Amino acid sequence: MAGRCPMGLGEFTSLALMHPEYGYYTNRDPFGVDGDFITAPEISQIFGEVIGAWVIDIWMQMGSPSSFNLIEAGAGRGTLMADIMRISNIAGGFESAAQICLIEASDLLKGKQRAALNNHKVTWYDAISDIDVDKPCIILGNEFLDALPIEQLRRSSDGWQKRVIIAVDDNEFKFDWVRAEKELVTLLPSKTVSNEIYEVAPIRLEFVNECEALIKAHGGAALFIDYGYTKSHHGDTLQAIKNHKFVNVLEDIGSCDITSHVDFEALSAHVGLNVTPVVTQAHFLKSLGIEQRAKAICANEMDLNRLVGEDQMGELFKVICFYHGNNLTPAGF
Ligand code: SAH
Question: What is the pTM of this model?
């Protein structure tokens, strides 16, 4: 990597996470107690069941189409989709209508997804733009957007600069600043404070545009759940996690997860679809009845608390839905 420095944060993160040989996701299954972090579907099946009820509801609002693409971006171990499909028989015709499409960059995780969904027909895609625009789509992404790289910018007395990584030697890297490209500067809010760090995410915006193209063609909805903020603001949210602990982004490259918080306001402003308000994960899951579901199946109370507790995932995680089609009212907002 040293030979390719200075390198923008976006390119650095893509390589650290997805390098075909040394990338973090290419090399491991990062989830669970023994892994580096735990995601909502891995905490309890009630998460996927509630999301499943949401998917079935929006499918019915769409007029129960006899064939639609059920797309999940960054499906991890395939647990969320497996939980959704396990309850899918509560609505007649849903299971056979759902064409499961998974967008996944890691071959190792594709293997896990294949095992989790072995009784379903699944098609894998490297990119959402590879999916044919021939039917309605319901798109899901849990902790997917945070994994798409960002760039960081700051306004100095010399104009806008972007953060880069430079090599001190073969194994040591540090941050630096260089002049920012105009295309990045156009993504910034209109009012900015000098010397503060602003984050822009061209790859996330491009992904949202690709969802828009799919949904606009035949109707549908996209639901994203992730940690992030409701209103755009400045601040450095780039983080690396290993073994459930925050670590230095520039150390152990390729063996820790690198993410950043999602600016939901920037996504809403960018997408040309109907947009729900941004709500907390606690609000969304509770209004869809997660507490009743937890009671009904005697789920572990600690698991429920991890999903909706204010000091757990409940407040930090946010939910948004983009949609297009007559008379859709996404539930939970
Ligand atoms: N949704 C899962 C996994 C979240 S981790 C869960 O909640 O458990 C992020 C997931 O996105 C992983 O499956 C990772 O391999 C995938 N991913 C990250 N960047 C990607 C990209 N650019 N294209 C496709 N998949 C990506």
Answer: 0.96
